[in-house]
Every structure is written in C-alpha cells, then in structure tokens.
Amino acid sequence: MSSGSPSPRPDGGRGWSTPSLTPHSGRSTPRSSELLTPASVSSNISWASAKAKSEEVRGYPSFATRNNGFFSRSKRQISATLPRWRSPSGYDDYAEKDEKGVYPYYGAGRRGCSPFGSGRSVLRRKRMRLFVVMLLGLIGYLYMWSALVERYRRSPFGNGRKFVIVLESNIEGGVMELKGAREWAVERNSIANKAAYAKRWGYDLEVVNMLAKKRYSHEWREGWEKVDIIRETMGKYPHAEWFWWIDLNTWVMEESYSLQDHLFNRLSDITYRDINVYNPLNISHPPTEPYLDEVSRSATGDGDVSSINMVLTQDCGGFNLGSFFLRRSLWSERLLDSWWDPILYEQKHMQWEHKEQDALENLYISQPWVRSSTAFLPQRYANAFPPGACGAGGDPEVHYSEAERDFVVNMAGCKFGRDCWAEMHEYRELSKKLNRTWWEQVVMPSSYTSRSTTAARSTQFHHTLDPTLTSPYLNRNAQGGGNERTKMPTPESASFLAKKPTVAPTYDGVDFEDNVAVHNARDAIIREQWVRSMMSRLVGEELGKCYHREGVNHMEKCGVLREKYFELLSERKIKGYLGQEKNVFEKA
C-alpha cells in the first residue's frame, strides 16, 4: 500500500479498517457478530475518527512492565472470577456518535448490545428471588401459620386463656359399672373432639374423673361432685374468667365457632333473664315479696350484661346442665357453697331424679339472689338435642339443625333405649362432612347419608328413631328383616321358669362342708343377680321410650316406670355375697 502518510496503528496491532478490508481483520478468527457489509462500515467509520483514535492511543506509555506486583496480580485473579457483563464493543469503540450523542445499535445478532439486555437479566434475577421468597412463604404458612395463630389466641391479646372447658370422663367406672368397648369409644372420641376445639382457640381443657366414689364415709355424691369439681378447677386456673362444663355425651359440631364470637361478645342480644320467655317448670317469676329490693323483684334483674354470672339452657323438662357456663365471681362462690350444702343432698337425694340439676332448680325458685345473675340461652345455641330427646325431632327450638349449623349437640338420655356410640359416630361423620375444606370436597366427596333419608324406616320399630340409633338387639333384628322386637327372656317366660333353681339365692343355712349345696347356692345367687340386672335394663329402656313418647308430660305419664326403675337399681346388686363366701371358706 502506498500513501502519503502511514496508517495509524492502534494498540494490539490489529490494524485499522479500510473500505476494502473487513473490520477487525487483525484477529485470527473473525467473530460472527462482526461480519458486516462494506456499505455499513463505510457509512459509520471515517478516517477522521480513526485518526483521532490513533492520537489517543499514542498518548499511552509505550512500555509497561508485566510484573505489576503482588497486589495487581491478586486483583487480576479476583476480577477474573467475578461475573462478566456484556458491554458494547467492536464498532462502538470506533463509530461516531449521532447527533444526540448516542452510539449506533447494530441489532441483536451483531456485536452491538441491546439497550434492554442488562435490564432483562436483572428482571430475571428479581423474578427468581421473588419466586424463592414466595415458596418459602408458602412453606411457612403451611407449617407455621396454625401454630402462630394458636399461640396468639392463647396470649393476653387473644383472650383464649380466659376460658376453661371442663369435660367429665370415666363415667360409671370403678365399683359402680364396668365399661365396655362402646363406652370407651364414646369417651375417647369425645375427649379428642374437645381437645381439638380447645387447641384451635387457645382454651384450657380440664378432663375430670367422674369415677363414682364416696366423698364422705356415709354417702355417695354422684352428680353433686360436679359442684366440687368446678370449685377445684377455678382454683387450678386463676387466670380464667369463664368455665364451660360439658357432658361426655356431647359433640362440638362447629369447631370454627369461638366462644367469644358465638356467645360472649353478644350475650345481651342472645340471652334472656326473664324465665317466662320459656318456662317448662312453670316457675312463678319475678318474686313479689315486699322485702326484696328492686333488682330482685325485676324480671330481668339489673339489665346489665356484666352482672350475668351463670349461663345455661332449658329443655322440655327444665334446667339442663349438660352444657352450661359459670363465671368467676363472688356470686359464683356463694352459689357453689349453697349448691354443695349437704342438707340439700341428705334430704332430697332420693326424691330428686336429676340430683344436682334439681338442686339448682330449687335454689333458683327459693333464692331471689340466684335469679338476678342467671341468664338463659336458647337451647340450640350451645346444647341442641338429637331426635329422640324431648320428642321425635323437628322441634326448631330444641333439636339440632344441619341447615343452620348448630354449635353443639348433646345426646341427652341416650342410655335409655338408644345407643350413645351410634349417635356420636353419626354426628362425628356429619361434622366432618360439613367442615370439609375446598380441597377435601374435590378429592374426597362425602358418602354421608342424612338422617332424614333413613327416618322413614324407623317406623317398623314402633318409634321415630333411626334404626342406627337404637339399641344393638334392634339393629340385629333390622338386619334380619323382621318387623317384631326380639323376644328377650324375662322372669315370667316359660323357658326361664323351667330353669329356675329350686334353692334360695343366699348362703344362709348352707352347709359349707357340702360342695353340692355350696355350688347350688352360688348358681342361684349368680342367676338372681343376672335377673335383677336384666330387669333394670328392660325397665330402663321402657322408661326411655316413655320419655321420648310423652315429651313435656313425661314427669306425669312415666311416674310408675320411673319408680320401678329406681327400685330395681337399688336392688340389682346382691351386697356382700362374695365376701360372705370368702369369709366362710377362710374360717373353714
């Protein structure tokens, strides 16, 4: 090449482009993104710009040592490990800027860099970080949210510790009655139900032992021990304000209802203090004695919701203590003292069928100060009944309503002609069906059959209960297709009388040296024991059916059966015969 002035040489010795040469021809291998047309090169690169660039290059020192020291070498090694960013290179280094001072853009497939490339990379990293944060948040919600909510509800801000659930257990255990598999199933499921509800809302659960035992050397306080247990529970939980007593044969149907929202935040709206609103006992109210103050003579007390210290429900027979609330106060201490008075128990325990419940009714009638702080809930708010209790069902004031999602169902009286475990199992499954999550509704469609679809079949047993809720021998009869009740042996049947022993059911006058006489006496005693137990069971079932049939009038219509039942209960145990036999043989 001949020219008046030599071409400038840039650093690196790559040479400068000419209109007839390919850009960056000094490289051994040209990059694909740098293959541009001569027309585009000639339009963007001029000799003037190349000359100016050459002058800048000549300003650098011509010699630089390669040994830059430890710091420089370390800096190069560190910088080599860092991520690299794409930056404009190639022709942008030498191309002239446009009128606005911006380098030209060659397109995505060329050496020039897109103005949005680095932005897309940053956005991509931000989306990844956001995804990781959302994933961690979802995992935390699934595994920690419930625990955090429960901890908050138990804190002073959540007010969960102001409520204590007192649940009875071990009923008829010990010396009074042996519990079978169905009784244990009822107890186990009921306790689990209350424990789950208490845990969800941060309440304390006190499971108390109702094992029949003597409080004093001369008396059994069955029923009255409920009063003593509440007093002990108040001492055990000094921070609590309200205590909810609930029987074992109950089921919390709606665990999503808190006591605060369902009841106590609106006591003034849902309770009534004038018992004349619903008065199955026909109690004269309010008291009219002239020596009473205005509050005691008022039908609604002082009208202040803060003075309510006891909340309970009424059924067709009067007060029902299967589910009631008691508030910690001086009034409550006075009530418990009066309720626990031995005079009430000693004088009335044989006349009062419902024991401590009748005692409370007596206090309400005779003590005006009890009325002024007692409020009543509509029964279905906290103590709904199933069909078979207080009527055949369908009473909108008494019986459980699936459509209106009642809070608690109480299988009251299920021991009389009904099956407690069958009822509890049915309501447990119904509660699961009603409270399924949206995911459970999709993947596990319920196969639950409503009570209304099977109620018509119950007429074949001469009562209005679902066959699944009747006693086991009726269920066996239903499976066999018969329409008559199973004939159970009674003391009057011919087959029973034919096998009746000829000896008296006692060891009195028996020669214990005669093994045959001892054996016959033992058989007669065991048989007599079975007869009394069977008769008490049969009469108890008939009494339950009478209660179911008569409803409100059961106290008048079922009096004969009730007296017979209590008579059989008192005589169904042959006291001391095993001990008598043991003592005799030990002496011998």
Automatic annotation (TrEMBL):
Region (Disordered) residue spans: 1-37, 468-496
Domain of life according to the entry: Eukaryota
Keywords noted in UniProt: Glycosyltransferase, Membrane, Transferase, Transmembrane, Transmembrane helix
GO cellular component, one term: Golgi membrane
Membrane-spanning ranges: 130-148
GO annotation terms (biological process): protein N-linked glycosylation
Gene3D superfamilies with a match to the protein in the record: Spore Coat Polysaccharide Biosynthesis Protein SpsA, Chain A (3.90.550.10)
Pfam families for the chain: Glyco_transf_34
Compositional bias (Polar residues): 17-37, 468-478
One GO molecular-function entry: glycosyltransferase activity
Family: Belongs to the glycosyltransferase 34 family.
PANTHER family from the UniProt entry: ALPHA-1,6-MANNOSYLTRANSFERASE MNN10-RELATED, ALPHA-1,6-MANNOSYLTRANSFERASE MNN11-RELATED
Protein name as catalogued: Alpha-1,6-mannosyltransferase subunit
